[in-house]
Amino acid sequence: MADYIKGLFGGSKPAPAPRSDVEDDFADYVSVASPTPIYSSPSSSAPTAASFPDYQTAPTPVPFTKWYRVWERTSPADFKNEAFIIPFIILLAALHVWGRRKNKRKANLWAKTHIPILEKEFASVGHGKTAKERLGRASTSDEVAGAGDRDFSAEGLLKEKTAQEFTTYATGRQNVAFTDITVKLFKRYNPMTLAIEMIFSFLFESMRAPKEYMEMTMYAFDGKEKELVPVKSKAELDAKESRFKGLPNSGYDACVWAVVHKEQMKGLRDERYDVSLTATKDHKSLPVWASVMSESAEVTETLLTKELVECVEKAGEDAFEYLIVTDQPIDKPLKLDDATPKKRLLLGLRLPASLEPSAYAPTLPIFEYFLRLPDILVSTAHFRPEVTRRIRNTREEEIKKLKKADEGEKAEERRLDAEKKKKEMRDTRLKGLSADEQRKFLEKEREKGQKKQEKRMSRKA
What we know:
Elements: H1 2-8, H2 24-31, H3 80-121, E1 124-125, H4 131-135, H5 141-150, E2 159-160, E3 165-173, E4 176-184, H6 191-203, E5 213-220, H7 225-228, H8 234-245, E6 257-261, H9 265-271, E7 279-281, E8 290-294, H10 297-303, H11 306-315, E9 320-326, E10 344-350, H12 364-380, H13 385-431, H14 435-460
Antiparallel strand pairs: 1-3, 2-3, 3-4, 4-5, 5-10, 6-8, 6-9, 7-8, 9-10
Helix pairs in contact: 3-5, 3-12, 11-12
């Protein structure tokens, strides 16, 4: 009763008891006491390094030294990356220098064994001086070759086109306008590229394996000495005409004929348009690894001499690649100008791996025979009219195809020009008309176009 009276007159109320139905999620927060602040006296010592975690330790101070005393402020552990990179760079540089020198030695060895033979056949060999000027003596070709063997220098004879390709040039011979020779070697200066090429050629048939070879191309005069030999004055022109007047005709019948290694046949057919015109046949005189590609059997019987067969056998399966007589371009002609015949002779030989001069002995006979081949063609390559007609018909069919394609292109150009002129005339006429006249003119054009479209649809039906 006393509590009730206290309540009516604003007496103190008892504190409510905590609810028993408080949810579990808030139970922890209800019972947590308020945090008590921690006071530290001003005289307390500063925190030591031991109170911090390990990752917050202060860096080791670098000692102050002179700028040039590097060894006092560094250690070998600071150069771990350089210890791997610098030896790798030195190795690559050493391989590059070694590869270039090896290729140059191999090219010079080829020149030492073949240039004397070229100097016997040509008046000028190499990109520099002639043989007599280089040796400083006016003598016979045999003496020049002998002197070249004793004191040979490849300077001016071989031109280094790239680190793997060397070229030379020869001119000044009857029946031959000029000769280009290319010696191509491995990329020894770049072993990684060489390894990738070898791996890819092993995995994919479309990629050829890298190889070391020599390719020689002779361009025949074919009776055009007066056109091809340059002159500087009228006196030289008169002298040239008098000199060529007594010479026999250097022309021979056009044909495509080749002796090839069987492993090279597919590649040659895919890469060369001229060889694709021939038919492949085995010949009883040739080794089993070689074959003949010819446009006619009579051409084979005329050009496949006993001496040539012996030279092919001596060269061997590992060195001989192809010998080609052609008058057609390498790439398929797309225009009439590209189909102009240009008589050429090509010889492809692989280079031996050895650096001894005796390693080239098996291929020297066919090299010498190839230099005399233009004379053989001029004297013997004159076939019966039936054979010549058949060969000529093959070329005329290709020329007809080119003419037809050329006429189609010209007709298309004429049609486009006519349409362009017609459109210009129409635009000029429209500019001179009024708005109503232009509307009527456009309506008539639309009606004509609809009629033409209906006629086309009826024809198709």
